[in-house]
Amino acid sequence: MSETQNEAPDAGAPQQSDLDYKINLLFPGVVVRKDLVKTVKGNAVVPSYVLEYLLGQYAASDDEATIQAGIDTVRKILAEHYVHRSESELVKSTIKERGRHRIIDKVTVTLNEKADVYQAEFANLGIMGVVVESPTIKAHPKLLVGGVWCICDIEYFHSDDQRVAPWILGSIKPIQLSRFDVDQYLEGRRGFTTDEWIDLLMQSIGFNPEMFSRRGKFFQLVRLIPFVERNYNLVELGPKGTGKSHIFSEFSPHGMLVSGGEVTVPKLFVNNSNGRIGLVGYWDVVAFDEFAGKKKRTDKALVDIMKNYMANKSFSRGVETLGAEASMVFVGNTSHTVPYMLRHSDLFDELPEAYHDPAYLDRLHHYIPGWEVDIIRGEMFSDGYGFVVDYIAEVLKSMRSQDYSDRYQQHFTLSSDISTRDRDGIHKTFSGLMKILYPGGEATRKEIEELLRIAIEGRKRVKDQILRIDSTMAEVKFGYLDKEGTWYTVATREEDEYPAHYHRVRKGSDPVEAPANADLRGAGAASAGTADPDKVTQSKPELFQGHREYQEGQIGVSYDMLLVPYLQGASQITIVDPYVRLFHQARNLMELAEAIARGKDPADEVAIKLITVENQDGREKLQKQYEYLVQIKQSTAALGIVFDVDFVDPQSVHDRSISTDTGWKILLGRGLDIFQRTSDGPFDLATRYQKHREIKAFGVTYLRALDNADHSIGA
């Protein structure tokens, strides 16, 4: 980097990294600083690709002066031409008074059969019946399905004929890249290492690559495969807040995100009454948001047509069979932990009943484990440079017709008992990742193996869950051979982490022995018959009942010895403590939740309800209290703890206590706030271990309901 580039940057601009410098050098004019979208968006409710299209026109530079001028230009364009719904009447007045005005709006076109004309509806402007010429529809057929963001010139001419709309479409330009140079793209790729290219793609999505592990980065890249691979069927189920639907709503003008509950046969495939083709005929990707939900109503006819389409890439219109290339993505939330699902059902348990069907599930090519994807936080967004999204969207679209699925075969061979459908799923995922990471086809044996393992794991996750549902399907040995004949087994992460629950005996099959490294705790240990015989014969010690006092400054006290033995075995725990307001008090609660989680089987769920009081010391401190408790709820969910909070009137809280559905009630004089302040230093043992902290003086009373006589630990 030259000396001039190392000079002090503008105070408001982030320091440019070596990667950002290389990105601007090799891809001039098609990259943009990703934090600029938030800078210019304001209260405009538009997808990111619309804003990046404008930024790419005026701010695609690493020169700060050019960027600032571009930001000002984009802001001016949005201020003058973007239509806010609340200002639609003002914009209509502007069009009328000027006679012609340029707007940015989402446009949907329908065919008026009676009048034999195409008519446009403008979402924010709120006008409809605007005549659109046939050549415009032929050039931009997506206007007919789902709507497209456009830059339009609207004219006004009033007619005495009330049947004629006064609005005239002067010009229309969909917001997407008109062309790109594929050779320039491939040449630019050769200037990056694989790690640099992955980080460039992460920044293009909008994320800071430094905040993600390599495995976490690949989850994001797999989300891109439907855009680069035709007829790719992807599912992702996991906790809320992991950005499952973001890419499909914001990343590309070629993707359409629809609510799972709004899907119908006419909207998705074909309207048999008029022959009009649905979404799959026009969009590269159709993603179904909020797809999970056992009790959701489903249309059996839709499920049947979807199964046929996902398998055969076609659907029927009367007697005619039509083909389409749209990839299908299904994203939804889970409400239980992975071990809980593995013990009680399967990893597709959250799907509506009609889709919890082996025939449908077997058509899915890859399952992203959404529980491994980090919940999105503010610091995870990038301020580095990435491709303007409509540029990378066009790149991916241009490669949909290419097939890279055989590129691993010069080094590896798949297991011979992998079925055709399993093989197709692996091939399509591998091909998609190759096109995304190695578009020129140049990849080393090690790089190819990495992609192959990811592809196999994602399909194995699908198949292993189908085997739980349908015992008639044959077991499959997922793995591959190298050219020397060495066998490599591929396992899913949850298989390695929870083998006692993963390797469940299937109905009508011989018992499956869990691997030697299985974590056989709790019920898993009992069912596997591997409990320590010495521990089995020992009687469990009686738990103390009564009152104890602890002295000021005493050490050696922890929740593990004070509370957890009385909480083990409980499925519902209620904590009454009015003082869970400050950081250290919230940390105490989190530490208790962690201690409870350590003492239970990972497949068990424990409901913890906190009854507390809102912070009365001002709005800012109250907001902090809310933030602490929300973070506890999000974090403990991964431990199999369902955390909830009830805020009550301060006068209604008397004794601070913990009670369980096993009959124990613990009266805590000071609540959970029993520890004296620590230094919080990283090398202070008291920071990590409660037993090294000095305590405040307090008393505790243990009470047990008379109708539950088992007082032993773990009861």
Beta-strand percentage range: 15-25%
The number of distinct helices, counting runs of at least 4 residues, comes to 27
- What's the N-to-C terminus distance? 67 Å
- Report the major sheet: 7 strands, mixed
Structural class: alpha+beta
Across the major sheet, the strand order is: 20-26-25-24-21-22-23
Question: Please, what is the average pLDDT?
Answer: 87
Q: What is the 3D shape?
A: globular
Helix content: 25-40%
* Oligomeric assembly: single chain
Features:
715 residues, alpha+beta, 27 helices, 35% helix, disordered N terminus, disordered C terminus
Explain the overall architecture.
Residues 1-11, 507-537 and 709-715 have low confidence and may be disordered. The chain is of the alpha+beta class. Strands 20-26-25-24-21-22-23 form a seven-stranded mixed beta sheet. A five-stranded antiparallel beta sheet has the order 4-3-2-5-6.
